[in-house]
TrEMBL record:
Phylogenetic classification of the source organism: Bacteria, Bacillati, Bacillota, Bacilli, Bacillales
Protein family: Belongs to the ABC transporter superfamily.
Xref: SMART domains: AAA
CDD domains: ABC_cobalt_CbiO_domain1
One MF term in the entry's GO annotations: ATP hydrolysis activity
Compartments reported by the entry: Cell membrane
One Gene Ontology cellular component: ATP-binding cassette (ABC) transporter complex
Organism annotation: Gottfriedia endophytica
Domain ABC transporter: 4-237
Protein name per the record: ABC transporter ATP-binding protein
Recorded topology in the membrane: Peripheral membrane protein
Length: 267
C-alpha cells in the first residue's frame, strides 16, 4: 500500500513568505481526508506540496516512496491529481475534449485507452453536452467540472479537490456527491480542501485542521467538531446539525442527521 507522506515540511514562497511550517502528515492510499481551516492558513500551499507543484524548502514529501524533489511536477501528477480551486488557473485548452485529453496524450496512452478514460470522466462529471465547446463559453460552475474531469481522466490513485462545492448549485452538489460515492467504491484516496462542513461530514472520515501555517489537529469529524478550542483556533464552523444539536442542549458530539433523529425519537 502506498502513501503520501510529509516529513517536517516547511515551505516558503520565492518572496520569502513562509506559508507552511513543520508539517507532518501521513495519508495512506485509499484514505479520505478533508483539510479545513481559516483563509490563509496554508491549506492550498500544503496540497500543492503533495502533487509536486510546490517543493519543500525544508523536509521531504514522499509519494508512494518517491521523493517529490527528485521528480518533475508532471511525473508526480501521474500519481496525485490536483483540481485547482479556480478552474481558470488550470484550464488552458480551447476545447473541453482537448482539455480532458491533454494529460492522457502527454502520458502517450493509446487512443483506445484515451477514449475509455475520457468517456468515464465525462460521464462522472456530466460534461457530455460541452465537449466541443470552448471552456470559457460555459458558466464558472460547469468549468469547475471540466477541471475535475481532466484530473479524473488521469486515473491517479490520489485525487485532491480544492474547494469543490464552492459556487455549485443543488445539481452540482448532487453530481459531486455521486462522484464521491464512485471514488469511494473504487478505493481512491480523495483529499479535499473545503469550507463546507456538511460536505466534510457527508464524505470524509478524517479531518486535518490547519491554522497559521501548521496542522493543529487530525482526527475524526466528531473529534474535531466537538472540540471548542480547535473550532476557535482554526476559525471553522460546526456543521449545521452540530450547531443545532448544541443549541438545543444535546451536547457537542452530535454531528450526523441519524444521531439527532435517534435522540429526538426518544422524546
Ligand atoms: N505565490 C505566493 N507568494 C507569496 N505568498 C503566497 C503565495 N501564494 C499564497 N501565499 C500566501 O500564503 C498564505 C497561505 O495561502 P494558502 O493559499 O495556502 O492558504 P489557504 O489556507 O489555502 O487559504 P484559502 O482557504 O483562502 O484558500 C497566505 O497568506 C497567502 O497570501
Amino acid at each position: 500500500m502506498g502513501a503520501i507522506e510529509l516529513k517536517n515540511v516547511t515551505f516558503a514562497y520565492p518572496n520569502g513568505f513562509v506559508a507552511n511550517e513543520n508539517l507532518n502528515l501521513l495519508i495512506e492510499s485509499g484514505e479520505r481526508v478533508a483539510i479545513v481551516g481559516q483563509n490563509g492558513a496554508g491549506k492550498t500551499t500544503a496540497v500543492k506540496l503533495m502533487n509536486g507543484l510546490n517543493k519543500p524548502t525544508k523536509g521531504d514529501v514522499l509519494v508512494n516512496g518517491i521523493n517529490t524533489k527528485d521528480k518533475t511536477t508532471a511525473q508526480i501528477s501521474a500519481f496525485v491529481g490536483y483540481v485547482f480551486q479556480n478552474p481558470d488557473d488550470q484550464i488552458f485548452n480551447s476545447n473541453v475534449k482537448k482539455e480532458i485529453e491533454y494529460m492522457l496524450r502527454y502520458l502517450k496512452l493509446d487512443q483506445k485507452e484515451i477514449d475509455r478514460r475520457v468517456s468515464r470522466a465525462v460521464e462522472l462529471t456530466g460534461m457530455s453536452d460541452y465537449l466541443e465547446m470552448n471552456p470559457y463559453d460555459v458558466p464558472y460552475s460547469t468549468r469547475k467540472f471540466i477541471s475535475i474531469a481532466a484530473i479524473l481522466a488521469i486515473e491517479t490513485p490520489y485525487i485532491i479537490l480544492d474547494e469543490p462545492t464552492a459556487g455549485q448549485d443543488m445539481q452540482g452538489i448532487k453530481v459531486l456527491s455521486t462522484l464521491m460515492d464512485v471514488l469511494k467504491d473504487e478505493g481512491k484516496s480523495v483529499i479535499t480542501i473545503t469550507h463546507d462542513m456538511e460536505f466534510v461530514t457527508d464524505n470524509f472520515t478524517r479531518v486535518v485542521t490547519m491554522a497559521d501555517k501548521q496542522i493543529i489537529a487530525d482526527g475524526s469529524a466528531t473529534d474535531i467538531f466537538s472540540n471548542q478550542n480547535i473550532i476557535k483556533q482554526a476559525k471553522i464552523k460546526k456543521p449545521q446539525i452540530g450547531e443545532l444539536a448544541s443549541e438545543v442542549g444535546f451536547g457537542e458530539n452530535i454531528l450526523f442527521r441519524k444521531e439527532i433523529v435517534e435522540l429526538l425519537s426518544k422524546y
